[in-house]
Backbone:
């Protein structure tokens, strides 16, 4: 693999001889995204480390879950905002924009999810993820209860926790080695979406019905896309 | 003025009868930007408050200074990143993208300026601005000395401090009233800039010469634009 | 203007040729206070900066508002206490002592407003100002609602926010340039006020009626002065 | 003992039958200060607790030490500033004013010792006390070495630590029970001291000679009093 | 006294000529514990300081109180956990293990009391102690009210505060001088206690009855020992 | 699998039908440790999640690395100390005791690594891990340089970062679901080791030679075991 730009500050060694599964994984990235995310290139000096990272990331973000894929990306971005992680905010900010088909939502969560006027389900989900990030030692049963009251099952709570915990790892890995995101992420899903003729793009999961919002049309549109 | 979307969470009252100077200012915003920034609409319930805010902001960001306009916008964004200010990150992130003609630099500073591989001059400038934001009570003469060693005059230090302090005010004002940025900002200067045929776009001020960078071409391009 | 003592650590340049309005402002300070506050002298190297600062400070602290002038000074001091700002605690601590005609109240707020046994209106006002100072990114609608429940209008909330935000700017400016308060402030309104024969000194605004206090006579006296 | 004002928020019980030594101690307070400090009244519900507190406080603040009594009061106030302790800032702020014969120094340390332009000896002493207050778990040998380089013996370092640690206890005790200082403290040593005809008032200990200061005459006067 | 291992990083001086009472105290330590705790050896360079420290520690931890001796040790350990104090976690962790006859409880509190599934009385007691440690300036009447609702008298609240405050002093003293615990503490009460044939070992005080717990048998056993 | 005690606060579902590899893994745990660590039981509701977690943990803690296995456990414990993680401090504290054959070292790191008088190599390693835990956004090239100066290769730095990052994930997972460690951990390697007749137990890697220590014999013994 020719690396045109350094993907991190460490010289951890040349790329390993990747096994067929990992080679296929890289090929699929190229095909679907047009590039291999730099985080995978950074891990590629060691096949076992790459496999373990890919397996965990893919299970968490793409596997079966009571959380929609968009919701999981929102957690990734909210956690990365607290940790000011350049790599993850860039890559997963793009993922939120893409999954929500909403160029503004990615930035809202990256900046401060409290400004995003989210439905109660997502607001409580992100409040838990942020508390777990900032003060894990202060989590108590009441925090889990709050998620249950917002409609999450115990299995959902595991998933919220697992995604938030995973990005607390990834953020620190990226910071420790100065990981640099592929430049392509900056330019994905930046075009303004039409405001009227939008076909609703329901995610797999819907959140419980919630009261109508008082904000303007942008927030209402955003909301209808998340819910 | 017809407000199609609410600009903040407070009902501070109807727009005041703006004086001719403020009306001209709004007209100029419309002409140059295509919209009146919502922060000005938020202050418009009171002509005196609007005038005072506009006067201070314009003097700081556009007035005579040893800091380039891009550098002042970089300070605004770095401070707003610490404070997680949705409004200012959106509006001034766009301004950094625009002044640097670099869609990536705005996000870098908004996420974590330490990842931006900045020349020493700008890195020390932002380090001071961030310390002043996080722990103003811990600023000591040594902090000013560090700026002097990085080539800043005492008057420059005043300006760094004044811009950083101003956005500590604005961030809090925006948070307190839940100020909402114009949606247009999200879409400004998002197109990828060509990597080769770029005419250097020198800002008014140049930073002192610095050692060549080891990062890839993107950082080098960025650097040449800032310097 | 002969400066007998340095007013800050920076040599920002000689005093500008002040315009007639600013010269008149300085003259009025001398007449009313006996001295020109050093913060104005610090800004005097640039007429435009001085004008902008004076305009904003005067509008906030002396302009029309649902908050009494004493309440605005209390916010200035509570914010400056969090930020440990020597200049503002000295100057605005004196202002609280003077406006409250209570030498103890200025110190109470400067030390820790929670020890001041304030009426609910002022306690909630300062709690908001302190949260806005310490964690602006965590302000949510519930914080504004709490102020509304304490009797504040939306316009009042703007003013609480604007004063708290302004001193977050001023505190940082003072810290950044090591601004030094006029020595006179230390000695203003220090004499113990008589405990019985006090004529109540109602401020323009009164707070809503509140339950009788259990503390001793000093707190009761203080309370009657604030309310 | 007739309590005209409550000295704290707890009803810990009636005053104990104080032993002759404690009664004599209270009498001496009355004679020397004109009042019994409320902290002693608060402990007076239990003779053993009062004795233990008095013994420790008196040994630390008045006993034999390489630190002057003024320096020990400065530590008490700098620690209490970090902890925003109303009681201790009031009582020991008065003590600094009194021992330094300088009404301004007490406030400077109570607000932010970094603004006080202190000689290196006292600045390093307070830097250690503040770090010990804010982050005791981060103290390392280098912190002790810095004190040794500033001229302190190991025994002096013990005393700096012991005074700083003691006020971390007292501040918390005062906060926990809402201890209220005697009103008299507010009014002690507030008159402006003459600026020229001052007879130097050397404390028992002198600090090592230090370079001349660049600040104005007030700081020079202050400095000559501390050293 | 022959010191085989240094008890701290400072050379504060040789042991003082201890008075008969302190010599008897050391002898009693040797008889009961098999060693003199290093904290006492550290203070032994000065008889008055040693006496004052012993008097206060013994009154707080062994004197008459509405808190059981185990509860007081739990407070010591919870506070020391926040401050990451090696000496106190070692010495008082052993004391919790010993008084509770539960090798696991000492570690639970040393690590994070929130994981210990404590009865409401002890949980609220430690929550207060931890808040008083982390943010003494934020204690308000509501914090005391919460303790009253959990069944504590005002005198009990004094004792909770006094023990928590004392260890905020001791933790800092230990950190400042790098105090090193006697190695024996590490090995005290480490053997697993039988799970069935335990005779309940009621402490002097019992906590109010509380709802049955849902956790497994270990927590139930622990609970019955604390209550 | 019969669960006699709940391993966490969530009911994430019954154990999955584990694949042969995971069944073999559990059997090996039972054989080597006498129990299956509860963290694995907690993940056992989902075979894919369990596999991914086991793969990553085993690669990091047992795979090829320039860090010794003891050093990796020390990082796990130092990170868990910052995060106050009951599960990881218990399980990995036992692992440090076991790998170091030193019952005291595990507690030292769990309480505060700065008190452990470690050789420079391990001290700088843990300082990096702790900074990465507390302030990942503040990591800069200078932090990596410090590790290089302490003798670590870039590949070693990756491993330090990866272990520290992984426990920032695990700590949060354990906190989020209230994971409870197997009771057996508390009792492992608690017996005091002989002080003289110890055969040095060199770990695979040795740290660079370092200056002789001034502390007593316990620290010297500990040091010789780590190095």
Residues:
């Amino acid at each position: 693999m020719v690396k045109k730009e350094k993907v991190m500050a460490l010289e951890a060694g040349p790329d390993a001889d990747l096994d067929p599964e990992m080679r296929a994984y890289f090929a699929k990235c190229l095909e679907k995204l047009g590039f291999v995310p730099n985080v995978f290139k950074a891990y590629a000096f060691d096949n076992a480390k790459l496999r373990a990272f890919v397996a965990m990331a893919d299970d968490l973000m793409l596997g079966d879950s009571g959380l929609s894929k968009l919701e999981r990306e929102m957690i990734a971005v909210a956690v990365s905002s607290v940790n000011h992680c350049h790599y993850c905010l860039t890559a997963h900010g793009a993922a939120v924009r893409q999954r929500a088909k909403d160029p503004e939502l990615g930035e809202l969560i990256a900046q401060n999810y409290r400004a995003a006027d989210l439905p109660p389900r997502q607001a409580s989900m992100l409040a838990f993820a942020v508390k777990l990030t900032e003060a894990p030692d202060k989590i108590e049963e009441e925090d889990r209860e709050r998620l249950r009251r917002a409609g999450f099952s115990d299995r959902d709570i595991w998933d919220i926790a697992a995604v938030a915990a995973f990005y607390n790892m990834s953020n620190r890995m990226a910071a420790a080695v100065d990981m640099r995101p592929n430049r392509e992420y900056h330019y994905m899903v930046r075009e303004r979406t039409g405001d009227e003729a939008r076909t609703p793009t329901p995610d797999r999961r819907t959140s419980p019905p919630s009261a109508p919002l008082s904000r303007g049309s942008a927030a209402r549109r955003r909301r209808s896309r998340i819910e």
